[in-house]
Amino acid sequence: MKLQIITPLSILIDEEIDSLIAQDASGSFGILPHHAAFLTALTIGIVSWKRNGEEQFCALRGGVLTISSGVSDTLSIATREAIRGTDLATLDRDVLARFRDEAEAERVEHSDAVQLQLNAIRQMVSRLQPKQGGEFR
Question: pLDDT per residue over 63-92, tens digit each?
C-alpha cells in the first residue's frame, strides 16, 4: 500500500509500505494492506511503518488519517506538522514534547481570547438597560 504524509507546505512521505501503526483518541492501531476504507483523527504522536522489514518513524502534530480502498490502496495522513526521524527516543523526547507544549500554549491563548470576548459581551449587556416603556436607550 502507498503511504502519503502531507503538511500544508510539502509532501513529506510518498512511498510504498508493508504496514503502519498510528494512534487516535481510542488508542494505538495497526493497518495492513487491503484494509477497509477508514477515516480517523490522529492525536499528537508517532506513526511507525515497515518497508521491506525496516521500521521508520514520523512524529505528527495530530492530523487526519484516511484509507481509500480500490485498485491501489492509499493511506494518507494530513497534518499541520510532521518530522521524520530514525531515532524513536529522540522523536518521543524532543519533538513530541515540543508539539505538546505548543498545543498547550494554543489552548491557553484560546481560553484567554474566549474570556476577553465574554467580558466584552458582559459589558455590552450591562449597559443595555430598558427605559420606561420597555425600550432600550
Answer: 999 998 765 688 999 999 998 888 877 787
Which amino acid does the sequence have at 133? G
The share of the chain scoring above pLDDT 90, in percent, equals 42
Please give the helix or strand (H or E) that residue 50 lies within, else none. Answer: strand 38-51
For residue 5, give every residue at least 6 positions away whose Cβ sits within 8 Å of its Cβ, in sequence order, or none: 11, 12, 13, 47, 58, 60, 76, 77, 79, 82
Boundaries of every domain in the chain: 2-117
Predicted pLDDT at 16: 94
d(CA 117, CA 77): 34
C-alpha cell at 41: 483523527
Candidates 3.40.50.300, 2.60.15.10, 3.30.70.100, 1.10.10.10; CATH matching 2-117: 2.60.15.10
- Please check the confidence at residue 137 and state whether its pLDDT lies above 60: no
